[in-house]
């Protein structure tokens, strides 16, 4: 039986395959025997590559996916009677099936609004201050997503303002960086400027959506917070015995800036797509395109016509508009072909 690859997809960056650098690193790591459970040279190299990337002596753990990375990171920052403040569209709130509550034994998520997927700081402050009594789940962490679920990017200035607030309100700061590489590529900054220097205590750094077969890194910038995190991973079923296959792609992708190059490519593709589709009458961008996602408002009949032509894309993210997501593997042809089809099926008055 031959399996036909899926064409016509802009559903998610996790539909893409494994990028060459990750594949090559896997092959390199696949050389004979190596110690298990992370005590191997490939994992050591990957941790060093991450410390180098962030220019600091951070603690690094590799887990299988983002849900585990986020919920274990949050659990490590909280007691069960604490709460975590996040945006109403945050992945931890809408797409993790309650995992952070589960792994933290009940820590509550408190949601706030905010334009284009970014937390409104006045709402965060109100959420912390409106109750100080013992009956309220004590606010402990602010969790933000970079890039946001709506494809926008917190600027260094915005992060400084967030840090000012979390310091004042004595909140820890967690960053869901499933698409952190896309943010760094978009902002053209040193990774440290938008993480530990901006007060981020823990980053969950996504590998899967940037060309790895699987895997996310949990990066603690405050090493005290990483205490016994290895036990937390093990108990949650997130300690890979053949760890080298989870860690080696990090080493491969951080070498020669491959990760930022792929992320930059995905971002460029999104900008090209946004430009092409926003020129079509009747098509409207609903959020600014700042990284690798393009959100557009399309009439229902256009959406069905595109789906009938075989295009795959999501309409359940955020406010329910169409999301077209680019990846390291997106091509100029993919973009031209989608823009062409949207143009063709959009009915003119
Ligand atoms: C994809 C994604 C994750 C990780 O999801 P998993 O499916 O658990 O790997 C986390 N946060 C955000 C914002 C994401 O887009």
How would you summarize the topology of this molecule?
Blueprint: H1 20-29, H2 41-54, E1 59-63, H3 66-77, E2 82-87, H4 91-94, H5 99-103, E3 108-112, H6 121-129, E4 138-145, H7 156-168, E5 172-177, H8 180-187, E6 202-206, E7 216-220, H9 229-235, H10 244-254, H11 258-278, E8 284-285, E9 293-297, H12 300-308, E10 322-325, H13 332-345
Parallel strand pairs: 2-3, 2-4, 4-5, 5-6
Antiparallel strand pairs: 1-7, 6-7, 8-9, 9-10
Helix pairs in contact: 1-10, 2-10, 8-11, 11-13
Pyridoxal-5'-phosphate binds at residues 65-67, 70, 91, 145, 149, 176, 178, 208-209.
CA-based gyration radius? 20 Å
CATH architecture of the largest domain: 3-Layer(aba) Sandwich
Q: Report how far apart the termini are.
A: 46 Å
Please state the structural category: alpha/beta
Write the H/E string, N to C: HHEHEHHEHEHEHEEHHHEEHEH
Compute the number of strand runs. 10
**CATH class wording of the largest domain:** Alpha Beta
Q: Which word captures the global form?
A: globular
Helical segment count: 13
Instruction: Give the count of structural domains.
Output: 2
Report on the biggest sheet: 7 strands, mixed
Task: Give the strand order, joined by hyphens, for the main sheet.
Answer: 1-7-6-5-4-2-3
What is the fourth-level CATH superfamily of the largest domain? Answer: Type I PLP-dependent aspartate aminotransferase-like (Major domain)
- Classify the helix fraction into a percent range: 25-40%
Q: How large a portion of the residues is in β-strands, by DSSP E?
A: 5-15%
* Arithmetic mean pLDDT: 96
List ligands, each type once. pyridoxal-5'-phosphate
The CATH topology of the largest domain is Aspartate Aminotransferase, domain 2
Low-confidence stretches: none
């Amino acid at each position: 039986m031959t399996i036909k690859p899926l064409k016509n997809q802009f559903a998610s960056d996790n539909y893409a395959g494994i990028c060459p650098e990750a594949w090559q690193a896997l092959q390199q790591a696949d050389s004979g025997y190596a110690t298990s459970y992370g005590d191997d040279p490939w994992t050591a190299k990957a941790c060093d590559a991450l410390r180098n990337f962030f220019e600091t002596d951070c603690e690094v753990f590799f887990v299988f996916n983002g849900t585990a990375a986020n919920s274990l990171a949050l659990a490590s920052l909280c007691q069960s009677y604490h709460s975590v403040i996040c945006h109403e569209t945050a992945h931890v709130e809408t797409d993790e099936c309650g995992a952070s509550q589960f792994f933290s034994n009940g820590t509550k998520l408190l949601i706030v609004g905010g334009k284009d997927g970014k937390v409104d700081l006045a709402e965060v402050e109100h959420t912390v201050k409106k109750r100080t009594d013992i009956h309220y789940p004590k606010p402990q962490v602010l969790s933000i997503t970079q890039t946001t679920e709506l494809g926008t990017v917190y600027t260094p200035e915005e992060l400084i303002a967030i840090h000012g607030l979390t310091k004042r309100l004595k909140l820890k700061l967690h960053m869901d960086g499933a698409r952190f590489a896309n943010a760094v590529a978009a902002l053209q900054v040193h990774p440290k400027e938008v993480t530990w220097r901006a007060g981020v205590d823990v980053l969950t750094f996504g590998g899967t959506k940037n060309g790895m077969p699987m895997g996310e890194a949990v990066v603690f910038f405050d090493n005290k917070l990483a205490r016994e995190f290895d036990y937390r991973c093990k108990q949650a079923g997130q300690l890979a015995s053949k760890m080298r296959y989870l860690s080696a792609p990090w080493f491969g992708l951080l070498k020669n800036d491959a990760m930022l190059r792929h992320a930059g490519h995905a971002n460029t593709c999104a900008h090209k797509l946004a430009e092409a589709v926003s020129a079509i009458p009747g098509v409207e961008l609903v959020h600014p395109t700042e990284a690798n996602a393009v959100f557009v408002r399309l009439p229902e009949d256009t959406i069905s016509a595109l789906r009938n032509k075989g295009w795959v894309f999501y309409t359940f993210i955020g406010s329910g508009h169409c999301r077209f997501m680019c990846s390291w593997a997106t091509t100029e042809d993919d973009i031209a072909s989608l823009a062409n089809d949207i143009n063709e099926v959009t009915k003119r008055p």
